[in-house]
Design brief:
This protein has 179 residues and is an alpha+beta fold. Helices cover 32% and strands 22% of the residues. It is globular and about 45 Å long.
């Protein structure tokens, strides 16, 4: 490769011909060696109205009560009821507050005695893609035990919430309701 050529992973947007897209996330920057990580990407279809480009709006909509299907709300209620049995504290709505916005990504950070959680929510307006990157660092036996069912359900829950957030922001299907 010539020095003036860009390497396949170089460039902020990966848009150059012959280059691969570059993937970075605040969630991975914050927890670079996670015990659990996943990335879920969904296309955002053109809607009846222009959808926002601001990642904070996407993150707030994603974690709003309006974006939680009833079965997810029921699972969250079950979580609140049983976590005390293993010494894990109950979550408050503030746990999903945006802690940082950088570029096209909003970061949600929550640290507790059983785990550290990061969720990066990014919207690529050019490609019309919504991306949610989750990283988790488990702490002790409580974290490992708590995360057994979460690990199985997490991708299903996130996909469902993403799909609802996309509908809310492209079709304007309902008002945003915070937890």
């Amino acid at each position: 490769m010539h020095p003036e050529q860009e390497s396949p992973s170089a460039g902020a947007d990966g848009a150059g011909e012959g280059t691969l897209p570059v993937f970075r996330s605040l969630a991975l920057d914050s927890i670079p060696a996670p015990d659990f990580a996943d990335v879920i990407v969904l296309p955002v279809p053109a809607g009846q109205r222009e959808c926002p480009n601001e990642p904070q709006i996407w993150a707030e909509t994603l974690f709003s009560v309006s974006s939680m299907p009833e079965w997810v709300t029921a699972l969250m209620g079950l979580r609140q009821a049983v976590v005390g049995l293993i010494g894990v504290s109950r979550a408050t709505p503030a746990v999903f507050a945006v802690s940082e916005v950088r570029g096209e990504e909003a970061l949600i950070s929550a640290d507790d005695r059983h785990l550290d959680f990061r969720c990066g929510v990014a919207y690529d307006a050019r490609a019309r893609l919504l991306r949610v990157t989750t990283t988790v660092r488990l702490k002790g036996w409580r974290g490992r035990l708590y995360f057994v069912p979460v690990r199985l359900l997490h991708p299903l829950v996130v996909r469902a919430m993403m799909a609802r957030a996309i509908r809310h922001l492209t079709l304007g299907t309902s008002k945003l309701t915070r937890n």
